Amino acid sequence: MTASKVESLPSDQSDYRPAHRVSALDGVRALAALGVVVYHTASSMGLYSSADGSARYVFRVLHNLGNFGVAVFFVLSGYLLFREFVSNLLFDAERTPLPHYFERRFLRIYPAYWVALIGFVIVVGAPAVAGGAFGLLTLTERHFSTEVFAGLPVAWTLYLEVAFYVFIPIFGGVLWLLCRKRALKVRLAVVLAALAGLAVFAHMWVGLIVPSVSADYRLRLLLNLPTYFGWFAAGMALSVASAWVRAGRSLPRCVQQLANRPWVCWSVAGIAYLTIVLVESDFRFDGNVARATTTMLQVRFLLQGMAALFFIMPMAISHQESRLRSFLGGRQLAWLGLVSYGVYLWHQTILRQLAKWFTFEPNLFGFLLLLAIVVPSAILFGWVSFRLIEKPALSLAK
After folding, report:
1. Is residue 5 part of a domain?
2. Which end of the chain is more exposed for a tag (fewer CB within 10 A), N or C?
3. What's the average model confidence in pLDDT over 23-30?
């Protein structure tokens, strides 16, 4: 922000400081990616339905790791992408021009995805890959066909990420029209009300879908951006709080005290997570949308968002040092967070190839053995993807 720009701001808005990279959030991303890998490893062995004895309880807890990891990714996306927009909305700070914004988003997602998609096609064979070439390459396949998980299985989240990338400048533009030339407190109220509206809309969307469409179409309709507005909005709310703190202002005392106690936040996240596990096991809801009631879906989306929100909260809006923050921001986890996109893209392809080469016993020992192979292999592929594809691609961005 230039000096002239600062001088043109109202006196209560002139002390805004730009955001910087938080290594602890890379650690958060790393744990979320590992959780997804663990979930898919157990799923590839059919252990969520076949495990017995004491292992059954272990896999009950692991069964939610996949959805929790996705919730963390979406909350992080809301937090990171909305930072520039909310800084502009509240404090008139400069932000990246939209052409450069879309350029960076494109280079962040597509090159590494294309290479991973090619690798997946080679492993499973082109005839086994659902979807058309254009839709798969552009991450628009779900908008043009009836396929729910077309192409690379994990790409369903990338379809939603791309949709969010397009949505957030539109959302920010509308808010800018509502906020410009307003007092700071009015701007803040408008932004927070809009985020609350997104969360409410998400639950209304889910509540109206279940009774109004057939079971065959329900999953496809649920895997659309409006369903996840609540998760993205949670991250965007953290972004508002972070921008507020960077501007030298104080959060409500209860919020700041909570953020300064990471173990309390993680305990709340853990309780929400375990409650989801109980809902899945005691109410016989294993993620099958056809058997889910509106209440079940509402509760799971709410609790999943809460778990991800409180998991990320201490690292997003508190600058107070703690052992947990140091652990997450340590060199190993922060590095793993940097390469986590490649880990996410490649781990299922690795699982498919290992299934061709080896047979693992469908029990706890077999699961741990397979996991011991998959995790380092996925990390290796993630590192190669980051070094040879992602980093060079992002270096082209302005």
Report:
1. no
2. C
3. 93
Q: Is residue 7 part of a domain?
A: no
Higher per-residue confidence, 303 vs 93: 303
Q: Give me the long-range contacts of 272-276 (CB less than 8 A, separation at least 24).
A: 272/303, 272/304, 272/306, 272/307, 272/310, 273/64, 273/68, 273/303, 273/307, 274/61, 275/303, 276/64, 276/67, 276/68, 276/300, 276/303, 276/304, 276/307
153 within 8 A of 141, measured Cβ to Cβ: no
Residues belonging to the chain:
398
Mean pLDDT, residues 315-321 taken together? 86
Give the pLDDT confidence score for residue 1 in this predicted structure.
35
Q: Residue 197: give the domain boundaries.
A: 20-394
Please provide the average confidence, as pLDDT, over all residues in the chain.
87
- As a whole number of angstroms, the distance between CA 232 and CA 230 comes to 6
In a domain, 11, yes or no: no
Rounded to two decimals, what is the model's pTM?
Answer: 0.91
CA-CA distance, 164 to 78, in Å (whole number)?
Answer: 9
Cα–Cα distance measured from residue 221 to residue 223, given in angstroms and rounded to the nearest whole number: 5
Identify the pLDDT of residue 6. Answer: 34
Alpha-carbon distance of 348 to 252, in angstroms, equals: 43
DSSP states along 174-188: HHHHHHTT--HHHHH
Helix (H) or strand (E) segment spanning residue 284: none
How many structural domains are present in the chain? 1
> How high is the pLDDT of residue 78?
97
Radius of gyration for the chain, computed over Cα atoms and rounded to the nearest angstrom:
21
Nearest to 350 by CA among 316, 385, 318: 385
Residue 272 resides in a domain: yes
